[in-house]
Amino acid sequence: MYAIIETGGKQFRVEEGLELNVQKMDAEAGTKVDLDKILLIGQGEDVKIGAPYVEGAKVSCTVVEHGRDKKIVVFKKRRRKDSQTKQGHRQDYTRIKVEAIQA
After folding, report:
1. Which of 17, 41, 63, 91 has the fewest Cβ atoms within 10 Å of its own Cβ atom?
2. Which domain of life, per UniProt?
3. Quick check: helix, strand or coil at residue 51?
């Protein structure tokens, strides 16, 4: 069974036992989180599509850890103007593990 969930403004395809990084959540490591914004649930040929979300469906997850991604460099240069800026950014994330998908 798989599901397409929405969290942090992004969509993810998840299955039971999968670990993935999502945008930072306000939950301690080791706690259980229920995600209820389920866009689609599928199992073989049987597919339920929400409008916009599937009624009564939820995905149970466990928060594994919090962390920060690799640094990206934002470099802007204006040619012939002797002007340039360099800035770094590290995005916070939460690593979750999908425990169960309930239709």
Report:
1. 17
2. Bacteria
3. coil
Neighbours of 46 (CB within 10 A): 9
- For 11-33, the pLDDT digits (tens) are 999 999 999 999 999 999 999 99
CA angle 21/25/31 to nearest 5° reads: 90
* Placement of tokens 């040929």 in the chain: 45
- Give the chain's length: 103
User: How many structural domains does the chain have?
Assistant: 1
Q: pTM for the whole thing? A: 0.84
Q: How many CB atoms lie within 10 A of CB 94?
A: 22
Residue 30 structural domain: 2-102
